[in-house]
Amino acid sequence: MARALVALSCAAGALAGCGHPASMAECDEILELSALIVLRSENVTDPEVVRERTNSFRELRGPELLKGCVGKRITDRAMRCMRSAASAEEFDGCLD
Asked: Shortest CA distance to 70 belongs to which of 5, 9, 25?
């Protein structure tokens, strides 16, 4: 889950460009997408384990990460890109 933290931190920094202020829902989705990509890279596919680990990460680090994300600039293109990313590299590329 450390990669999810890094990815979300990068996302928060990359959101500073043009676009619109990121909503809580968008930032929560970024956190979720990032966590899912990390879990997939670790071959974690059991839905129960995915839910437990994502919820645990959200409880431990979510408030801090969301605070650094909400209100930062995000584009619709970046959100679409993150939704379709299949790897951490693709996800990070959405934020360039």
From this structure: 25
**Separation CA 10–CA 46 (nearest Å):** 27
- For the chain, the domain total comes to 1
Domain span holding position 90: 21-55+71-96
Q: How far apart are CA 70 and CA 59, in angstroms?
A: 17
Classify residue 2: in a domain, yes or no: no
Q: Taking the model in full, what pTM does it have?
A: 0.76
Return the residue matching tokens 């959200």.
58
Query: Which residue is associated with the tokens 């990121």?
Result: 22
**Token code pair at residue 81:** 């890109």
Residue 25: the pLDDT is: 95
Distance CA 93, CA 43 (A): 22
Does a structural domain hold residue 37?
A: yes
Question: How many CB atoms within 10 Å of residue 80?
Answer: 11
